Amino acid sequence: MGDWFAARIVDSGRLPLFCFFAALILAFVFTRINVRLIRARVRWWFSNVNVGDVHVHHVVFGVVLMLFGGVSGLVVAEGSVGWHAVTAAVFGVGAALVLDEFALILHLRDVYWSEEGRASVDAVFVAVAVTGMLLIGLRPLAWELPEPLSTLPFFAPGVLVANLLLAVATLLKGKIWTGLVGLFVPVLLVVGAVRLARPASPWARWSFAPEARRPNPGKMARALRREQRWRHPVIRAKIAVQEFVSGRHDLPSPRRIKRH
Length: 260
Fold this sequence. Notes:
With 260 residues, the protein is mostly helical. Helices cover 65% and strands 2% of the residues. It has helices at 2-10, 15-39, 58-76, 81-99, 102-107, 118-135, 147-150, 155-172, 176-182, 187-194, 202-207, 217-246; strands spanning 50-51, 54-55. It has a two-stranded antiparallel sheet. The longest helix is centred in the last third of the chain and has 30 residues, at 217-246. It is globular and about 55 Å long.
């Protein structure tokens, strides 16, 4: 294990990225444990941070840590790898605190435990997934091609542009995870761009939904059937995982709890 870590992480220059990845996950897990204990009003646990009547959300501490870690990383980037890894870990902790309240930033109101608050968990899952794929050596949009292909004129820029267009089409069709993972596994972008759009996606509204210029009831009915058959079970499974990790987001908080 030690030899694998040294070869795949340290020697490849990915130690700072690994430290960011580990700090992001650990800080998110600790934060969720913290807020769930606060919500349960466990007396021996930490309370919310308040300055007078103002509750200080942990996104504030996250922004401070991200600034500190980011600027410090710029300062030590050309120096010690160890210190660079430390600053990356600090940045990861700050990123976890910020992303854990992503829904608050998105809606500009405290929706932490409401249904809209699931957007925060989605944001953390996306960050973990993307960082994990970078950590194992995948690169987005196939910017690193085999040597014979990369030397062909205009081939590499053409592949990059083609993958980017496929990614945009996939995302416009409402296939968020397919689009994000497809940035690293381009064959998924082809599948996502070719297949029928989700019924609530921008692509559907423009091309075949009832409000489109040329509605297509047949396509809309097929998209709704696919949504019901395939998408809804996946969403239920995703919500179950979210609630296991971060708690229920559609239940009212106990009384006298101003925040979490």
